[in-house]
Amino acid sequence: MIEKEAKQRIEKLKTLISKYRYEYHVLDKQTISDAALDSLKHELYTLEQKFPEFITTDSPTQRVGGKPLAKFQKIKHADRMLSMEDVFTPIEFQDWIIRIKKLLETQNVELFCMPKLDGLAVSLIYENGILARAATRGDGQTGEDVTQNVRTIESVPLTLLSPKNIKLPSHVEVRGEIFFPLKAFGKTNKRLAKEGKPLLANPRNAAAGSIRQLDSSITSSRPLSFVAWDLIADMNQKTMEDEWKILRDIGFRPVPESRICVNTSDAHAQWSLLQKIREKLDYWIDGMVARVNDNVTYDQLGVVGKTPRGLIAWKFPAEEATTVVKQIQWFVGRTGALTPVALVEPTWIGGTTVQHASLHNLDEIQRLDVREGDSVVLYKAGDIIPKIKNVLKELRPRNTTSVKPPTYCPVCGSKIERKKNEVAMYCTNKRCFSQDKESILHAARAFGIDGIGPQTISALLEQKIISRPSDLFSIQPDDLLSVEGFADLSSKKLVEEIQSHKEISLANFLLSLGIRNVGEQTAIDLANAFGFLERIVSATLEELESVEGVGGVVAESVREFFSEQRNIDLLSEYEKVGVKISHQKIQASRGIFSGKTFVVTGILETLSRDEIKNKIREAGGKSSGSVSAKTDYVVVGKNPGSKLDDANRLGVKTLSEKQFLDMLS
User: 116 catalytic, yes or no?
Assistant: First the structure.
């Protein structure tokens, strides 16, 4: 960026930040999130550092305000380190309170609320007041012995204090969080940069990685810290508040910014306060933990699965940041559909640096009126590609132009067409390289083949070792030796992995074909209805439409797919290479979920995506990939995506993983 451009950008940023400041502080109206505003301020600060001659007194930035181990030993926890149920909205938090009051038959429950630190949970065992062992959480039952590394942390007492008013038991367990203070993290990365060493990715990963070093001298070189949040020992504590005082008295720093909340409104106010001050804290937090304060009551509520009933984590909303769109690129998928993606200036959201943002389709581009060069607000919900929330048109450069749809495929140069009644645009070349690559990758996943990713498939296509999904089963070890990254042993292992997946269910085989509009649930519906592949191939449009869950659009897609000779040839090729399809008819049981449709979003604590979908189907229900007015339930895990927003917008009932399992039982 030249000086003239920098000066113009700085002036625009100063004006816009001042506008938002006035709206927030004077008009009491927040038109941009704190995170996005902080991102704008950071951009301004960065530019001013590069061009200090443009810094003025009215700028918003000028406001005054041991021996290496061979391996880690396993340690079994005497008491399980339990997980927490997550909630994401005030309504879900209120529902939890109502459930507790109902179980306890009371009108009021006193809560102890504390920030949910984003670090590494550990258990510290003290024998006769001396640190004897430290272990990671692991799977809750068994962790790893990291005593040697934890001993290097200054804030972990090696010997407990013994105040006169407390009698220390011979065995004391303290649980808490190891974290990398943000200021210390920044200084550490500066030092690593000067030394020419790789930088640490983020404080959370750096803390976990530091504790899992076999050489404790590496851990010692990193200024980690520890805060306590649980005391497992009888010291006559009656409440969680008592435990906080005892932890402080015996030498620990309990989680700061914690306090008693006498009712739901008080807890909501504390959650809002923590969200507001989170950027000022020297550690990452991603929500608030609320625990029933009285210990007898807490124990009385008990545990369901891996989560205590008397404890919950109320997570903060998705994080946001601002950045600049450098370019809008078009990617070609397995069906030939073109998907636009915004290439943006690298920016930090939710602990990761992002460089791409999803735009979905041309209609979304036009709705946002996003252009190359625009400053935009990104938001991220969970571990998904960030999306563009809105465009900051006040910062739009001059001479920008609206995005025009491509007329030719960016991969093969073939013409692009837009089908009637569809938003998506398609490459007309059925043998487009990108389509072939995505089709083969999609098939490999449907067959359950591990160890073969996009780069390997691209190399196999480029070297003409394969051209279609069925060719995977013809690969020989010698074929892979010319592919970068493969040697004798790795080549044999991949071929063995592929050959071990020649048997496949009819539903998964239908999914592997990549038929447009046929997802996992639709493939199951078709397999249940017809039982045999041959029947599906020869089914009429009317027969396909008669299947529950299969409408006219899907039926036409299936009919169109099997009317093309190249696809019929693909079925023959699968047969020639020895792929066996199990043709038995799958009957969904008439269970408690009969006639119900579920959508799953986020990361679940005890079940994988496949496991929960199987449980839904075994109970007679259906699993869908998108939320609609016909959806009955959305099961919400950790870090949910936009499906939770869709559920709230459409009034679809949401379930935690625990609530879902309770329904099954």
Answer: yes
